[in-house]
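Slide 14.
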Amino acid sequence: MCVEQFSVEWLTYVNVIVQDKKVISVKFDRKPVDERIESRLVKKLKKDLERYFSGKKVEFNYPIVLKVSEFVERVLNETSKIPYGKTMTYKGLAEKLNSKAYRAVGMALSKNPTPILIPCHRVVSKRGLGGYSSGVEIKRELLRLEGIL
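Slide 15: predicted structure.
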């Protein structure tokens, strides 16, 4: 088992953990992790995240490990289709899944182990930003970074 990790500095540290060339975690934190990078895939991911946080449009197509329920996986898969610079409401996302349970969609998004790569920050409330597992201020700044706000 090969575990690689790195941090990218933005408003806070964005810590990424990759196991066997699959992303298992992306977390916003106050402290960086000790860098351990071996594979080209992880070097490319770090470079892509640095480009993204500098305001460049980046499409993240990396293998991700999702250890979540079937419903959460469906929500996250649909969320990953929301393009850079666009948003969708919780209700709109629920409708894409043929569901009326938009609050359940919000709860499912809170279980996203890889924010940014699965862009749950692009799902907003019809009345404003809505919530975000790393805080509404981070969500606001991510949307600003993409030119949405």
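Speaker note: The chain has a mean pLDDT of 96.
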